[in-house]
Amino acid sequence: MKTWFITAEERQALKRAIKLLALKPTTLFLACFLGVAGLGASIALGATAAWLIARASQMPPVLYLEVAVVSVRFFGISKAVFRYLERLASHKLGVSGMTTLRTNLYKTLSHSDTARIASLRRGDILDRMGTDVDNIGDFVVKSLLPAMVATIVGIITVIGISLVDWRAGVFLALGLLLSGVVGPLFTIRSTRIAQRRETESRSHISEVAMTIVDGAAQITVDGQTQQVLAGLSDLEDQLYEAKDATAKPAAWAAAIDMFGMLMSVIMAAYFGIFAVNQQSIPEVMLAVLALTPLSAFEGTAQLGSAAQQLVISATSALRIINMLPPEEQVKADEESEKILTGNLQATGPSILEAKDLAIGWPGGPVVAAGINLRLAPGDHLAIVGQSGIGKTTLLYTLSGLLKPVSGSVKIDGVDISSLPRTQAAASFVITPEDAHIFETSILENLRVANGQLSVSESEELLKEAGLGQWLSSLPDGIETELGSGATTISGGERRRILLARALAAKAPLLALDEPGEHLDPETADALLRDLLSAGSSEHQRGVILVTHRLTPLDQADRVFIMDKPHGSPDEPATFVAQGTHRELLESHQGYAWSLRQEQVDVF
Questions:
Q1: Mind spelling out the 3-state secondary structure of 279-347?
Q2: What angle do CA 35, 36, 42 make, to 5 degrees?
């Protein structure tokens, strides 16, 4: 089924996205007023110039023309001034709106299920938060404001022409409708096809680009560089073809605009001649009737590109809103957060308890079941097991990012998944394996977890994380700039900065996923030992970490071995054994064998 306009779903998405822009009515009104003033000055300039030329041809005394001459100069200057001011106001409106939209998106995503975000590709998320947000801002500047200005000025111009000759006003109105409605309607239909292809190509390009950036070394080793670049080149060609397709409807819109303008001018001249012959209007008004429509169509000339932007923005709005939970859920969560935040009171140290817990991703199989554990400040727990067994999924469930399939995870007796995100994070903070180091200073990287962190507090956290000597060796100290993705520091330094960030949150319970991954054994063991003793003196913290390294687990209070009890690949995993490091060495052959292998690898 062909869609000649935006769908109801796109309309609702665009409406919600515009609401998230939080546009200021005063700025919107100012931009619209300046746009109307600029276009109105252009039309007034055309009408006044037409009257001046016609009246001058009658060779009256020069003084009779002075007002018209001054008016032409005034309208000519004010046209440029108003348009410049309108550009400033509209771009300020759009840019501030995009900033607010991104802020509101991140805020709204905090109410979203982790599974919803995890199901999206990294490049796709980047594209939605980048280009799609820009397209929503462009809707205000390139679509909404031009449509408002063209409508207001068109109505005023038709009324003005109708006061001179109502028949010319009718045909001017028909011409403006043809140029401002029919042309853009064809533009929308054609743009939809091109936009669909462009969106798909752009998304694939972002995905491939992220793959190249993140896996450059592996791609080079595998000898796939030329193949990947060739695929990227094909995607870019598809994108250019899609953009070329959008140029065709713009040409059709221009042609229809020209036809509407030509019809209006011819009919205005035709009826104007009759009016002059019937002496119902002065002779000089014939030029005004014939030439004014030329300026009136300046507004509708922009509606072809405005229609294209409408389709682009509607598609982008749908992609953005599909990333978010329903609006009703966000409102309900915000209300619940206010109620819970008001009712929650400090009841002592946070204690996390998981009972008969079964975990898994929404729509997927049960990954693990029968999980029972307790974590309190001062406890140091470790979870070990083979890759893919469900350890990371367990941490996400314990932290409230994923809802349990069955069983419960409670913190201080309250279901953690029902807590406001800020409240849950204040008690239990998780640092995933691929946590990001931002391209900014060390201080600002720590402030990701606590925006109120002072310089002295940051330095103390880095010392606690084992980076005191390293920090003192840096010329700029805590203000040292880090490269994106931690490219300017070693793996051990990156992991310890992430530890300091986790400690900055001041949560009594910490969860860390594979903190020693990609580090040499000696560095990994030293880091894990520090983690298992983190905050054990001044600030009591409970630590639960997932790791493959067993050597430093003699510092853990308790170690949980996660595996499939009967070795069947279809059954859920569980804790097949637990105890202290020494107890597991004596009672679990697999644990003892793995530890011996680590020691052999070291020597």
A1: CCCCCHHHHHHHHHHHHHHHHHCCHHHHHHHHHHHHHHHHHHHCCCCCHHHHHHHHHHHHHHHHHCCCC
A2: 95
Confidence at residue 422, expressed as pLDDT on a 0 to 100 scale: 72
How many CB atoms are located within 10 Å of the residue 129 CB?
17
Q: Which residues of 44-82 are buried (b: 16+ CB within 10 A; e: fewer)?
A: bbbbbbbbbebbeeeeeeeeeeeebeebbeebbebbeeb
Separation between Cα atoms, residue 74 and residue 68, nearest integer Å: 10
Q: Which of 510, 520, 595 is nearest to 552 (CA)?
A: 595
- Strands 558-563 and 574-579: what pairing? antiparallel
What's the Rg (C-alpha) of the chain?
34
Predicted confidence (pLDDT) at residue 88 exceeds the cutoff of 90: yes
**In what helix (H) or strand (E) does residue 559 lie, and over which residues does it extend?**
strand 558-563
pLDDT tens column, 405-461: 999 999 888 888 777 777 777 788 888 777 778 888 888 888 888 888 888 888 888
In contact, 36 and 152? CB cutoff 8 Å:
yes
- Predicted TM-score (pTM) of this structure: 0.65
Whole-number Å distance between alpha carbons of 440 and 578: 42
- Least confident span in 73-77, 186-190, 313-317: 186-190
Q: Where are the alpha helices (DSSP H) in 215-283?
A: 216-221, 225-277
Residues across the chain = 603
What angle is formed at CA 537 by the lines to CA 536 and CA 538, rounded to 5 degrees? 120
Residue 124, pLDDT > 80, answer no
Mean pLDDT of 109-114: 67
Q: Which two tokens stand for residue 521?
A: 């054994």
* Structure-block tokens of residue 478: 């805590």
